[in-house]
From TrEMBL:
In the C-terminal section; belongs to the purine/pyrimidine phosphoribosyltransferase family. This is amidophosphoribosyltransferase. Pathway: Purine metabolism; IMP biosynthesis via de novo pathway; N(1)-(5-phospho-D-ribosyl)glycinamide from 5-phospho-alpha-D-ribose 1-diphosphate: step 1/2. Keywords: Glutamine amidotransferase, Glycosyltransferase, Iron, Iron-sulfur, Metal-binding, Purine biosynthesis, Transferase. Residues 1-20 are annotated as: Disordered. One of its GO terms (molecular function) is amidophosphoribosyltransferase activity. PANTHER family: AMIDOPHOSPHORIBOSYLTRANSFERASE. GO terms for biological process: 'de novo' IMP biosynthetic process; purine nucleobase biosynthetic process. Its cofactor is [4Fe-4S] cluster. It comes from Gossypium schwendimanii (Cotton). InterPro entries: GATase_2_dom (IPR017932), Ntn_hydrolases_N (IPR029055), PRTase-like (IPR029057), PRTase_dom (IPR000836), PurF (IPR005854), PurF_N (IPR035584). Residues 1-15 have a biased composition (Low complexity). NCBIfam families: purF.
Length: 589
């Protein structure tokens, strides 16, 4: 039963052969001029290709319609696996990429830009630089500051470099899975850094292995290198295009060869990728504008969905329209949680978006209160918006520790909510005797939210009212974000009132879905809301859901087959789909 977005304890209550066949006309090459900071709309991108994609729109209830695919997640007793108390109850950031061309300190600038993108991945980092037509690579497991030092950067001379920070949405966090990847083939060497996730990775890998390809990693990015290597297209960038035409899902990638830097974004534009330029003319690509700011590069524009940008010394920057692109489907969670507030993502200020989310909550889910606090750090801007609109003071009621390591030793006498207490400390002087509104960006499994509510009440709060700056999450993401399976998402299993009871707050309200779309205005159709609606722009056929609790330390040892515990197979053909999907008759696929 669909639930009201507000609840309180009172009356407030596919196989590769089925991939689209794109006709590739003679590519248009446009010498790229210096553009103003204002973002051009994707429709302004010069492309004459017409795409008639197969639609996969679903008629849905308030729950995720493809959750039926994932019954394999249950254990022998039919129960969803339990999770460590110390896990963050958030989607995990995907990855961040950087590319720099034409600067004598390219690798050092790349290193700094990766620092700015560290929030997008903390499990591994790498840089590939080009010097004298040789690709040199340094990668490592851990934070950027742990992987690189002065001597490591000295090994990466040259005027061209790409970099990557990762959280393992596909493949485990073994060193061999840390990007950028470098491979040699008959025409030279190529490096790639990828942000996103390919939903047809398994079919592509099977096809390539049947034809003799040998894989060194469990990452979906490696298939891109194999597809480029087997392509017979000319010139080089057409190899990339031919490879990308076989990919389904999300990808924002930067490539480097002996003499070229290439940036490409998938036809739907799921993941962000921007272009900037330094005062010396060096061209910079990055996942977010915050990386451009740190290295003093001026933001020019996004890489358009379906666009390939080629940079070399001979022709400068060329914009090549090669891949047909349907209506953009940019990830709304970039504005809700992933991106830094000081970034401009998809042409919108992240700070302004989050502030508006808070204002909407204050308007549509008001409550009598004495103070507004945030769950730091991602809830702060929305809380400021709520407080400003409600006319209630914002204060720091929770202090976040930024020095908690990945592992810690718990005393033998168990401490309740130990993981949360390590990270968040309540300020009794702010909370005691007060009616408190707590603003957070999202609720995923609800486990952390319940501990935060308990923490605030133990600090003496009279009432605790949770306000969530996103709609309820009912569907997993398959486009480069590591989320639990649909069965583990609390909003896919419970009504808002049931969630309120579970986390123990006095009232609970989510950002209404329709209000979110109204706030986005004319740009609303350009965003992907699959995690809120269960309607997927690219229908998952073979889906990787890395269940939180599987590979908890994210370090995989042993045979490749052992990763299959984190994979769930989608329907391989229509006959199977009819059996698995009870909503098949209502879909357009």
């Amino acid at each position: 039963m669909a639930a009201s977005p507000l609840s309180s304890s009172s009356a407030l209550s596919k196989p590769i052969s089925k991939h689209h066949s794109f006709s590739l006309n003679t590519p248009q090459k446009v010498t790229f001029p210096l553009l103003p900071k204002t973002l051009q709309k994707p429709s302004s991108f010069p492309c004459n290709h017409v795409l008639h994609p197969q639609k996969s729109q679903f008629t849905t209830s308030s729950k995720n319609p493809i959750s039926d695919f994932f019954s394999a997640n249950k254990n022998e007793d039919g129960l969803v696996p339990s999770f460590s108390d110390d896990d963050d109850d958030k989607p995990r950031e995907e990855c961040g990429v950087v590319g720099i061309f034409g600067d004598p300190e390219a690798s050092r600038l790349c290193y700094l830009a990766l620092h700015a993108l560290q929030h997008r991945g903390q499990e591994g980092a790498g840089i590939v630089a080009v010097n004298n037509n040789v690709l040199q690579s340094v990668t490592g497991v851990g934070l950027v500051s742990e992987v690189f030092n002065e001597s490591k950067l000295d090994q990466l001379p040259g005027e061209m470099a790409i970099g990557h920070v990762r959280y393992s949405t596909a493949g485990s966090s073994m060193l061999k899975n840390v990007q950028p990847f470098v491979a040699g083939y008959r025409f030279g060497s190529i490096g790639v850094a990828h942000n996103g996730n390919l939903v047809n990775y398994r079919a592509l890998r099977a096809m390539l292995e049947d034809n003799g390809s040998i894989f060194n990693t469990s990452s979906d990015t490696e298939v891109v290198l194999h597809l480029i290597a087997i392509s017979k297209a000319r010139p080089f960038f057409l190899r990339i295009v031919e490879a990308c035409e076989k990919l389904e899902g999300a990808y924002s990638m930067v490539f480097v060869t002996e003499d070229k830097l290439v940036a490409v974004r998938d036809p739907h534009g799921f993941r962000p990728l921007v272009m900037g330029r330094r005062s010396n003319g060096a061209v910079v690509f990055a996942s977010e504008t915050c990386a451009l700011d740190l290295i003093e590069a001026t933001y020019e524009r996004e890489v358009y969905p379906g666009e390939v940008l080629v940079v070399d010394k001979k022709d400068g920057v060329q914009s090549v329209c090669l891949m047909p692109h349907p209506e953009p489907k940019q990830c709304i969670f970039e504005h809700i949680y992933f991106a830094l507030p000081n970034s401009v993502v998809f042409g919108r200020s992240v700070y302004e978006s989050r502030h508006a989310f808070g204002e909407i909550l204050a308007t549509e889910a008001p409550v009598d209160c004495d103070v507004v606090i945030a769950v730091p750090d991602s809830g702060v801007v929305a809380a400021l918006g709520y407080a400003a609109k409600a006319g209630v003071p914002f204060q720091q009621g929770l202090i976040r520790s930024h020095y908690v390591g990945r592992t810690f030793i718990e005393p033998s006498q168990k401490i309740r909510d130990f993981g949360v207490k390590l990270k968040l400390s309540p300020v009794r002087g702010v909370l005691e005797g007060k009616r408190v509104v707590v603003v957070d960006d999202s609720i995923v499994r609800g486990t952390t939210s319940s501990k935060i509510v308990r923490l605030i009440k133990e600090a003496g709060a009279k009432e605790v009212h949770m306000r969530i700056a996103s709609p309820p999450i009912i569907g997993s993401c398959y486009y480069g974000v590591d989320t639990p399976s649909s069965e583990e998402l609390i909003s896919n299993r419970m009504s808002v009132e049931e969630i309120r009871e579970f986390i123990g707050c006095d009232s609970l309200a989510f950002l209404p879905f329709e209000s979110l779309k109204k706030m986005l205005g004319s740009e609303s159709p350009n965003f992907c809301y699959a995690c809120f609606s269960g309607k997927y722009p690219v229908m998952p056929r073979e889906v990787k859901v890395k269940r939180v609790g599987d590979f908890l330390d994210d370090g995989l040892n042993g045979p490749m087959d052992s990763i299959d515990g984190g994979w769930i197979q989608g329907p391989r053909d229509l006959n199977v789909e009819k059996e698995i999907d009870p909503l098949y008759q209502k879909s357009n696929i």
